Fold this sequence. Notes:
By secondary structure, the protein is of the alpha+beta class. The chain has a single domain, classed as 4-Layer Sandwich (Double-stranded beta-helix), CATH 3.60.130. The protein contains eight helices and 19 strands. It has helices at residues 44-57, 69-76, 154-159, 163-170, 187-196, 230-244, 300-312, 314-325; strands at 3-5, 16-18, 21-24, 31-34, 59-62, 92-93, 96-103, 132-141, 149-153, 173-176, 200-203, 205-207, 214-216, 222-225, 250-253, 260-264, 268-272, 283-290, 296-297. Strands 3-4-5-16-8-18-7-6 form an eight-stranded mixed beta sheet, covered by helices on one side. A four-stranded antiparallel beta sheet has the order 14-10-11-19. A hairpin with a 2-residue loop joins β6 (92-93) and β7 (96-103). The longest helix has 15 residues, at 230-244. It is globular and about 50 Å long. The model is unreliable at 1-14 and 319-326 (pLDDT under 50). The structure holds succinic acid. Succinic acid binds at residues 102, 117-118, 124, 135, 137, 149, 270, 272, 284, 286.
Amino acid sequence: MTWVNTLTGPNTTTFQMPTIQVQPVGFALGARVTGVDLSKMLTSDEVQQIKAAWTKHLVLVFPGQQLDPATLTAFTTHFGELDNYDSQPFNRHPEHDHVMLLSNKPVNGKLPAGAYNGQNWHTDLSYTVRPAKATMVYCIEKPSVGGDTMFANMYAAYEALSPKMREFLDDLEAVNDVSLISARRDPAILEAFKRLNPPVVHPAVRIHPESGKPALYVNDRVRTFVGMSDLESKPIIKFLCEHSVQPRFVYRHRWEVRDLVLWDNRCLTHLAVGDYDPKEIRHMIRTSTMGDHYGRLENPQAAEASLKAAAATSQEVAAGVSALHD
Ligand code: SIN
């Protein structure tokens, strides 16, 4: 904890005030951070305190922040290299490639592509070879009720498994498939997602590079395990998905306007709860930083063909996407 002097003149007592306060908001994960203005340039000491709290609590909530795409971006860069969201060009902010719109606010009378993002348990960008490290979401508008985000601690989920199950999973690789991103997507958008993001393989358990602890890395977007049939894989995936999101591992965030929430995709899964009136606006902006090159393509030849098709159809995709906006 850093302390600052507020009164330092001669013949005065020196008072010291804490700057950043971190208050847990969930037993499994999550903390509320106050005493810092994220729109300002942060000191290296403040950044260190925030990073330490992030490593400990996995999800940090900064209430009452006043951010825009530029200040959100500036804060994000403390956590690594910005992701330009090439995996989903149709979800970007019109003026900032690295800012994603999570919004059901109609554009020219049509629902935007990112209206129903994240409505199953996932970890961001696990369908890429370089899945996200940090994600930040800033709430600009929220529905009167619902539209929460839930987070599950995947260290805790892993630790709670039996030693035999952990041993089995430690050697396993999982195929992460973007076609499983969730049912409520526009079919044209889903097709574009699939062309741009061929299936990738990641370890089923990943060692967090900073904490050194193992975390389960299996969620609703895992299709199968490498070296096992779908028939064998499916019941295990189902078990792990159900196991990992038990209430004892979960923090549920009820958004307030001007909350900035920062999370660590390497050790948690999350879900945007789609339980709000679609006539009400839920409007958020999101940034992510690139994680390590963790995965590999499941089938490099098919992936190449898919990416070529994506390039060849990029105009068609762009036209399809703009049709959604027109
Ligand atoms: C996401 O980034 O997965 C969406 C989170 C949300 O909209 O609550």
